[in-house]
Amino acid sequence: MKRILFLPHALLRMEERGISRSEITEAIASPNKIESSKADFQRFLIKKLYFNKKFQKEHLLLIIIENNQNIIKVITVIDTSKISKNF
Asked: What values do phi and psi take at 2, rounded to 5?
């Protein structure tokens, strides 16, 4: 797997939402769904279902990444309980 770089904005959002680097790394390695950006061919939306320990129920991780030749940049991370709306 390519090296993963977490941008400061993504790290802030992860901290606010109690999401670890390992959860993001696992989501990138085995996503449930990947959508490509129509505006930027290097950007992707990673979607991963996971169990949110804080709320004790299934949530959806939405991870915006930029996939370059040697590195994956994590731009931002969103955690939502609105699975059917976003999946």
From this structure: -65, 160
